[in-house]
Amino acid sequence: MNTHSLFELNEYIKRVLALNLKEPLWISCEIAQIKASRVHYFLNLIEKEPQSDNIIAHADAVIWEKQYALLRKSVGSVLPELLRAGLSVRLQVSVDFHERYGLQLQVLDIDPAYTLGQLEIRRRQILVQLQNEGLIGLNARLPLPVVCQRIAVISSETAAGYQDFLQHLADNPHGYAFEQQLFSAAMQGEWVSKDIIHRLKEIQKKEAQFDLIVIIRGGGAKLDLGAFDEYELCKAVAQMAIPVLTGIGHDVDEVLLDKVAHTALKTPTAVADFIIYQNARFEERLLQFAQQVQWMAMTQLQTQRQLLEKLQLLFLQMNRLKLLDEKKKLDNWIAQMPIFTRIILQTAAQKLDEMDRVCQLLSVPATLNRGFALVYKNEQKISRANMLEAGDTIQIQFSDAAIAAKADKKINTSKT
């Protein structure tokens, strides 16, 4: 049995590959990892099963410095965004096998249209999933505060869009004051989605401190926006309990994050304008309400003033009528006074005559004339028998004369 060394085997493999793979090949794969070492780029390429994340193929690839420079010229500034972990790419490669370092693919070209197409397919799949789960428009159903002053901003601290946003708020023509707190997050690269989700969770813990959330960034390449199509990020934004505004910095393309946000605007300054306008609308409504209250108060005062004037006229008329009525009554009384006086005097005279007759009937002479007599003892009038003793001398006054008599004894005349 012949025994071959490892070097001989690898050399044989090299010759076989060189004979069978003479021309470069176009392959589709996913970039699992990419590392830059000085001016070279080393890629870890994989292929997954269509219906799962199971890896069915793996290979290492490299873009040498010279080739990267050529690709930069042919592809343009979008090249760094194409060479990003997690993206599906279509690469032209040549197969190289080295006796010491093994199999390695050398990247010669890249197809940007393929990557953009794959991203669009994936984007549409995520959009359908968001629609089926009822996440589209969920955040938009939250009411915007009538005044938006406490703002949680998710952006990069060094982003030009963030600075433009702050400056625009500060320079608002109405002089409104705003409180904003920055929750710094990556706005491009593979960490965008994870960073923003993490910041959303932080805000959620103290959501009562904020009126709304703003996610903003400046402009950038189209591939930079892919992170804002991630399902988990869109789901997190849709389920926030306070309104989320987006200003991703694009003029034409709409990312999925815009569809789940409460309000999507094109740029960070447009977001600032929207917030300022929202507060201006509230101030305008307040001023209109104040004018309405003033108008209603003036109308009510005018109405009450007119009513008071009417009441004053009515009061004067009623007083005049009352005075005339009372004057008529008084004149009537004055006219009837002599008659009443005469009647009263006649009535009084009749009563006096009656009283005089009664007095004459009850006088002493009249009483004596009716058969009564007066008894005196020592010039003291005697009205009861027990006022006398036997042997007392008494005087009896009759109507025509008085006689003297002596009391003998008492005769009891009372009935039993």
Descriptive report:
With about 425 residues, this protein is of the alpha/beta class. It has helices at about 5-20, 65-75, 80, 110-130, 160-170, 190-205, 230-240, 255-260, 270-360, 365-370, and strands at about 25-35, 40-50, 55-65, 90-100, 100-110, 150-155, 180-185, 210-215, 245, 265, 375, 380, 395, 400-405. The strands form 3 sheets. It has a 5-stranded mixed barrel with strand order 1-2-3-5-4. It has a 5-stranded parallel sheet with strand order 7-6-8-9-10. The protein has a 4-stranded antiparallel sheet with strand order 12-11-13-14, with no helix packed on it. α5 (about 160-170) packs parallel to α9 (about 270-360) and α6 (about 190-205) packs parallel to α7 (about 230-240). The longest helix is centred in the C-terminal third of the chain and has 94 residues, at about 270-360. The model has no long low-confidence stretch (mean pLDDT about 85).
Write the layout of secondary structure elements.
Blueprint: H1 6-20, E1 25-37, E2 40-48, E3 55-63, H2 65-75, H3 79-82, E4 88-98, E5 102-110, H4 112-132, E6 150-155, H5 160-170, E7 179-184, H6 192-205, E8 212-216, H7 231-238, E9 244-247, H8 256-260, E10 263-265, H9 268-361, H10 364-369, E11 374-377, E12 380-382, E13 393-397, E14 402-406
Parallel strand pairs: 3-5, 6-7, 6-8, 8-9, 9-10
Antiparallel strand pairs: 1-2, 1-4, 2-3, 4-5, 11-12, 11-13, 13-14
